[in-house]
Design a protein that fits this description.
This protein is an alpha/beta fold. The protein is built from 18 helices and 19 strands. The chain has 3 domains: 65 residues; 191 residues, Endonuclease Chain A (Endonuclease, Chain A); 165 residues, Endonuclease, Chain A. Helix 2 crosses helix 4.
Length: 495
């Protein structure tokens, strides 16, 4: 303020400072009063400090990273498209799920009914008990199976990915989509405008000419500036004919085949689902597609929800969704409920670990209570700032007996949580504030011993190429790394 009143300062410079001062006051009002129920106090103070310590830079950062998504059903089917029969169908699924929990003889589901009920808050989170689930931890095997399923599609293909790169594997998949569209199938592709920032709709000219439809999620209003950079669709969903569905951590690109020389081998976890669980994935895709499409809106027709019960499948599962348009952070709360329910063991994969203090404390309490807690994080970062914040977070866990390991065989991108070899969660959500509150995410929660044992076996294989992060090893980090961690820790509320 003194600078603004100083007569020796250029009027133009004073005008710029006054402009940003007024703007920052307005933003401060919005952050404190209008978003007070949407932000925690730590994030609020972090943004206020940034705005007034660095007014111009803080303003630019807020425009791109600080704005909240309006809390309404922004990602829902318009009411005009939802006929009463459709509503009844969805409500009936939730009711059936609740009844199943009460009456089931499935011991794991009954034992962990608290987790089930925690997630029974959205239409897509109904409980299905007739699924067949295949686990993929290697990109080459995953994409070979995915391409085969795409080629065998008969009715429709609905695909949604955070990152889609039209390189080797990306072009192979696009060619299949073009072929299926030319055969008369309904083919819809949704990609994230920021995650796939190098992708342009001009690349889909042939695909669209063949009848395919493509949309970008939260695309830039003013090209090439995207003011929604902080709220991204991080989901990875593929639904084929309503009979096969995919969900997990793999995006589409050659780097996920281990072809990026800097990253090396890409370790991730993905699920192939057959059964009623596919309906949940379809519900999620419909909601996301309708939120972005300005042309054709999808409804709940029987075409998209065929009878897909698997007689040979007996895996019980739920789908959990999170997004910045909802205060109920379904995946985060599901994770927390799992941690609090664990009696014997907890196994975690996460490439980024920057949750709030309550989440960290839940793991510390579990370890102190006699639960074996094991976590694998990357040793090689793909996002340095988040990696440094991750190291600062896990340091608190190491002190209280949590076993933390760094993956040394490339990059681990898997998002997985196992408890007691009975319940598992696999999906797109990292264990950080961004996934819990800012991005649109999807995870499958599975209640099945066979599946959890398979995931535990994969975890054990990862341990063979991982190194334990001991207190001594952590303290050996250089002064420069300590400095970067301090910066990352300060920035963690707004990462």
């Amino acid at each position: 303020m003194q600078i603004i009143l100083d007569p020796g300062i250029s009027p133009i410079y004073k005008g710029i400072l006054l402009f940003f001062f007024v703007i920052n006051l307005g933003l401060a009002f919005i952050i404190i009063f209008l978003d007070r129920d949407r932000r925690d106090a730590t994030a609020t103070w972090a943004w206020l400090l940034l705005l007034f310590v660095m007014p111009i830079f803080g303003f630019i950062m807020y425009i791109f990273l600080g704005r909240m998504v309006k809390q309404k059903r922004a990602l829902s089917i318009s009411e005009g498209k939802l006929i009463e029969d459709d509503k009844q169908r969805v409500n009936q699924q939730l009711e059936d799920a609740t009844d199943y929990v009460v009456d089931t003889e499935h011991q794991i589901t009954k034992k962990h009914s608290d987790i089930v009920h925690t997630l029974l808050t959205r239409e897509q989170s109904f409980l299905s008990n007739n699924n067949k689930v295949d686990i993929f931890t290697d990109g080459r095997k995953l994409f070979e199976q995915m391409k085969e399923d795409l080629r065998n599609a008969q009715t429709y293909i609905h695909m949604e990915y955070y990152i889609l790169k039209l390189d080797g594997i990306g072009n192979e998949i696009l060619e299949i989509l073009e072929q299926k569209a030319s055969e008369g199938l309904e083919v819809k592709l949704l990609y994230d405008a920021v995650g796939s920032k190098s992708l342009h709709k001009s690349r889909f000219k042939q695909f669209q000419q063949n009848g395919g439809q493509v949309e970008a999620f939260f695309k830039a209003v003013i090209i090439p500036v995207n003011f929604r950079i902080n709220n991204r669709n991080h989901r990875k969903i593929l639904v084929i004919d309503g009979h096969k569905g995919y969900v997990g951590g793999f995006n589409i690109g050659d780097e996920y085949l281990g072809k990026d020389k800097q990253i090396g081998y890409w370790r991730d976890t993905h699920l192939r689902i057959q059964g009623d669980g596919v309906d949940a994935l379809q519900l999620s895709f419909i909601e996301d597609w309708n939120s972005q499409s300005r042309h054709e809106q999808l409804d709940y027709s029987d075409k998209y929800f065929p009878d897909n019960a698997q007689t040979e499948g007996n895996v019980v599962m739920q789908l959990a969704l999170s997004g910045p348009n909802d205060n109920w952070h379904q995946i985060e709360f599901g994770y927390l409920r799992m941690i609090m329910s664990a009696k014997k063991s907890i196994y975690i994969h996460t490439p980024y670990f920057v949750p709030d203090r309550g989440y960290i404390n839940a793991l510390r309490i579990a370890a102190k209570s006699g639960v074996e807690v094991h976590m694998i994080i990357p040793n090689k970062p793909d996002q340095p700032l988040v990696h440094w914040a991750t190291l600062a977070s896990v340091a608190l866990l190491i002190e209280d007996g949590v076993n933390v390991y760094t993956y040394e065989n490339g990059f681990i991108h898997s998002k997985m949580l196992l408890i007691d070899e009975e319940v598992a969660s696999v999906g797109s959500a990292n264990m950080d504030v961004r996934s819990f509150e800012l991005n649109f995410e999807v995870n499958a929660f599975i209640y099945d011993e066979t599946i959890t044992q398979q995931l535990r076996a994969a975890f054990n294989e990862d341990l063979k190429v991982s190194q334990k992060l001991t207190q001594e090893r952590y303290e050996q980090r250089s002064g420069w790394v300590k400095f970067k961690q301090s910066i990352a820790k300060l920035a963690s509320p707004i990462l």
